[in-house]
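Illustration: Histidine kinase.
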Amino acid sequence: MKAYLRKFHIYWLQHFALVWLVTNIFNLVNYAYKLSIWGPMTLNTDGTPITLWQMFVIHNFQKPDYLYLLLFTFLVELNYRYTFKRYNLAIFVGVAIIVAAIGTATSLYLSTNGFQNKYPTNLFEPWTAAAIYAVFYGLIREFFYQRLYRLKVRVERSETELNSLKQQLNPHFLFNTLNYLYGTALQEKAERTAEGIDMVAAMMRYTVAGVQETFVPLNEEIQFIRNYISLQKLRLPAGTAQQVKINIDVPDSAIQIAPMLLLPFIENAFKYGISNDQASTIEVDVGLHENSLGAIITNTIAQGAPHVKGTRSGIDTCKKRLELLYPESHTLKIMPTPTSYSVNLLISLKQ
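Result:
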């Protein structure tokens, strides 16, 4: 939440600075043009014409124009961030009209010292101009945001494909080798080994095919997670004190998801949550409610166990992908304690 508010303040101040700069340039150019055409129309007390610098000082220090710009850009930015992103276009336009009315009234109040002086009776033109600006600001900004978003997705996809190709040594050769090992394990009646090899082959096929796609069917992603967890459980010795509690309730649907978003968190749980000499617990709870996918992944941390070093690159990459693919439509909470590590992820998916 703090990061979101910080980002909002940055965008608001950048918006204000740009509008302030354009407004001042327009005022100065307009005043210089009038000076060149009609000569000085506003004089100092000593009879000398008001200079461009004096006009700049008047607009920014003697008149509270910047206060109006601060408020107006804040309301416009707020309308875009909270209304445009969450509601339909009609509501956004309606709120933009209200924002324009507030901005126009504020400008009038500041320029007339609280409505005590004479003020213009025709407020339709400034109100209309402010409303048009508020609407088109949101539309134009969203247009460029979507273009940038699609570009980032393509770049992210290209980088993922490149990294995948670097890490894969002839997948077909590996698949053939796994098939050979699977057949050998069946001949030797090593059913657990054969089951593990079969799951590894299925996971590899999914990773090779899934990395080529930006989104994959949610059912395939869930099956991949089931295979991974089953494979991890196979390596636990019988009668072990480790407990792995799995609750995955995701019905069949046409919903799609970016591939391998949950895997880094589950990998992290098995990497740090399994101890050979102490009781430990891993809990994975994944559920789908309407179009919202929720995942809670918790693992205990063994006391006194040697620290396992990790680069956290998988978790960091997953955070970046969530920000890129599901901006403002996901929440991620990571809650580490001395004895446990918990991840709570909620993603709003689309059909």
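Reading the tokens back as a structure: The chain has two domains: 2-153, 238-351.
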